[in-house]
Specification:
13 helices; 334 residues; 3-stranded mixed beta sheet; alpha/beta; homodimer; Rossmann fold
Chain lengths: 334, 334
């Protein structure tokens, strides 16, 4: 199987690639386990060459390509090397798409559509896992978001992700791809540096204090968050790929609200204190930022993700477990 | 005010243009009545020159342009003659978009987006009335569609209309246009010849028998339909234009499920018999067409359109009134 990941330089893309290299098996459209022979990593930022275990001879060949979604589309439709599966993670993030309207539409809408068009040109419709977001929700919402709650996005990013889901559905209905869209909760803890995502603080207030650095929290302590760890996101992407299309359709559709945990910023501060001591918790400075708050306020906090649970997607055990996994996987890797 | 109508050669476009010529007043963004000085009619098909009342001096200047949505976009952004309002009716219809995937996306998605982009270039954001459709609904649905029922389109046409709504919302949120999207029921009775819309039979089985011609009904007698007359559609478009944006937002958003009537094909046959006699009803031949049925079956039949009612949109009085209006407006005009 030849698998392509867009957004492979991002932290989820890197973790997903590493996971697929460690365990290079995915299910094809008939539900048969297939070995991943080739992994094609595409990102506008240079993707670090992933570590490949020595000797085994069973690890996939890895091709690293620095380029945008147009390049990714070209790679998908290479006649000598057709792709069997795509993990489409590349996106201009929430705050970035809100600042640069044209860039957001070019990447998040046109880029996604171009990738689907490239898949459509293949003889065998590839599996297509699309990283959507709970940012499709916004505005007046019920207290608890259900699978049948209408998405009324209040940001350009949320609009573009919802349009991406609709395209994935329509291209799938026509048999051009075998798509599935995952609405990701806020991913916590993101390693590395803060980015332009409005949610970046959710990771900063754990990551920086545990590294002995100050962190800024732009939202009040009672702000709620719907979160999922990078480990669980990677597991969800792999699970979404493996699920048979008819199981998804029987469960209500190709778009899935993932299973997360509801936590408050105050919960996070407390958990940081438990993991790193009172001095760590004391490194979090609350500096209100109305622009960030205006975006974060539109995101839902409570879900009843029955479809995802029925399909076998799993949440993290606890906020403490999320932080422990971060310490194990990423704290010393920085 | 300079008003542009796309799809002006279509029957709703022609009726809307005639109505705006008869009564050339619309409300601007501040709720003030403004005279329509110019009416620009654009369609890929030649638009018949509308009749303009003589003498008055108050009728709008009418410009008829034969061209696609790219031409319409060029007309919107003419620096010497900026447009103040757009009624965007042009579309590749349901069955057409299902047959020609590329054409549907090019017109219904790219065309709509291009028009919004053109509006965005204007100094004053124009009002933008988008003709969407209840075809955005489909698949597993509740018995009664409410304003907060999620739209899960099962056709490319429905997908493209829903994406159009999302774009209208996002461009409006950014202050680039002042948009409103109307989800039109099946419009009945459509004058003229059958077209590629899967719903075309709903008009044929009234129009043809009342003209003494045979009509083919491709769906069974118990097929339900959610219908609205051309008169009410035109009234709804005008009302949607006039409504202040803040009233729409307070009522829940810029997208409105219009108020229609639920009728069955059997009801229609009976009403045709009342209007045209038993011989008229006898001219309807039931010839099942699985392709048409597969599309029509995905459309919802029962709505609770509370938002539209609160905003002052009105349904037809009865099926009999719909047929009487057709006889008065269109039967002898053919």
């Amino acid at each position: 199987m030849r698998i392509l990941i867009t957004g492979s330089a991002g932290f989820i893309g890197r973790k997903l690639a590493a996971d697929l290299i460690r365990n290079p098996v995915l299910k094809d459209g008939e539900g048969r386990q297939q070995r991943i022979t080739d992994l094609i990593l595409v990102d506008v930022m240079p993707t670090p060459q992933p570590a490949v275990p020595r000797g085994g001879g069973e690890a996939p060949r890895v091709a690293v390509v620095t380029g945008g979604l147009a390049e990714a589309a070209d790679l998908v439709r290479r006649p000598d090397a057709p792709v069997h599966g795509v993990f489409h993670l590349a996106a201009v993030v929430s705050s970035g798409a809100e600042e640069d309207f044209d860039l957001g539409y070019r990447v998040n809408l046109d880029g996604t559509r171009g990738l689907l068009e490239a898949c459509r040109g293949l003889d065998d419709p590839p599996k297509f896992v699309f990283a959507s977001s709970v940012a499709v929700f916004g505005g007046a919402m019920p207290d608890v978001i259900r699978d049948e709650t209408v998405a009324t996005p209040q940001t350009s990013y949320g609009t573009q992700k919802l349009i991406g889901e609709l395209l994935v559905n329509d291209f799938s209905r026509k048999g051009m791809v075998d798509g599935r869209s995952l609405r990701l909760p806020t991913v916590m803890v993101r390693p590395g540096k803060p980015n332009k995502a409005a949610s970046t603080f959710a990771s900063s207030i754990i990551r920086e204090p545990l590294q002995g650095q100050r962190a800024v929290c732009p939202v009040p302590e009672d702000t709620g968050l719907w979160v999922l760890s990078p480990r669980r996101v990677v597991a969800a992407m792999r699970h979404a790929f493996d699920l048979p299309a008819d199981r998804l359709l029987a469960a209500g559709g190709r778009t899935v609200n993932l299973v997360g945990l509801t936590v408050s910023v105050a919960d996070v501060v407390e958990a940081v204190g438990k993991a790193g001591g009172a001095e760590a918790a004391g490194l979090i400075d609350f500096v209100p930022d109305e622009r960030i708050q205006a975006i974060v306020r539109t995101w839902p906090v409570r879900f009843a993700p029955d479809r995802a649970l029925a399909l076998g997607f799993a949440p993290d055990e606890s906020l403490e477990a999320i932080i422990a996994a971060f310490i194990e996987d990423d704290l010393n890797a920085e």
